[in-house]
Amino acid sequence: MDDDDDWLFDAAGAIREDLNYSDRLDVHRWTDHKEAIPFINNIYDRYFAGGYRNVTMKNLKVVVLDLFVKWKSDPNLKTSYSRNSNDYQVGSIYNELHISRKTIDVVDKLSEVGLVKTHMGFKDRRTGVGRISRMWPTRDLIKMFEEAAFSPFDIGSSPERVPIVLRNDEGEDIAFEINPEL
């Protein structure tokens, strides 16, 4: 067991069902705080330089800010996120900040460089039982969070966020277009 697997055990050494203790990735996390921007830029420059900077930065910013807010509020809370590209469709109500399937690539890179741990989700097609993937910060990212010169109070939602989520009878999210005339 490596040091980052400590989350599997409570203070008495008993195994916990921590993967069930999670909250979905908030794709609307945003800030323009003067200290948060260099924080995100530093992560990008160290681990993501090259490629499509604007797209990667936008997705990286959302993921890191959400991990930060969740860790500050409860260090045991995991972040669940979809690895289904269809969940990041352009134009959907859940893509108001133009977050794309690049989110999956960002999480994979953060995992590869040791800033997050992940647990892949699954779907049993026969029974329909499944769980979406989980991620949480490693000690290296937590150390960065501890040194951050901003707080969760400096992070909010995009002012463009629509506060209503429509769902059908099966509980599935329904995309809709906003009518500015209403």
Give the DSSP E fraction (strand runs of 2 or more residues).
Answer: 15-25%
As a whole number of angstroms, the C-alpha radius of gyration is: 17 Å
Shape: globular
Counting structural domains, the number is 1
Instruction: Describe the strand arrangement of the main beta sheet, using strand numbers.
Output: 1-3-7-4
Q: In this structure, how is the largest beta sheet organized? A: 4 strands, mixed
Number of helices: 4
> What low-confidence regions span 5 or more consecutive residues with pLDDT below 50?
1-7, 9-16
Termini gap: 57 Å
Order of helices and strands: EEHHEHEEEEHEEE
Overall pLDDT, averaged?
81
Q: Look at the helices and sheets and give the structural class.
A: alpha+beta
Number of strands: 10
- Helical fraction: 25-40%
List the helices and strands and how they pair.
Blueprint (H helix, E strand, L loop, with lengths): L21 E3 L4 E2 L5 H12 L5 H21 L4 E4 L20 H11 L3 E4 L2 E2 L6 E2 L1 E5 L1 H9 L8 E2 L8 E2 L5 E2 L8
Parallel strand pairs: 1-3
Antiparallel strand pairs: 2-8, 3-7, 4-7, 5-6, 9-10
Helix pairs in contact: 1-2, 2-3
Structure, explained:
The protein is α+β, with helices and mostly antiparallel strands and 182 residues long. The chain has one domain (18-174). It is built from four helices and ten strands. The protein has helices spanning 36-47, 53-73, 102-112, 139-147, and strands at 22-24, 29-30, 78-81, 116-119, 122-123, 130-131, 133-137, 156-157, 166-167, 173-174. A four-stranded mixed β-sheet has the order 1-3-7-4. A two-stranded antiparallel sheet has the order 2-8. A hairpin with a 6-residue loop joins strand 5 and strand 6 (130-131). Helix 1 (36-47) crosses helix 2 and helix 2 (53-73) packs across helix 3 (102-112). It is globular, with a radius of gyration of 17 Å.
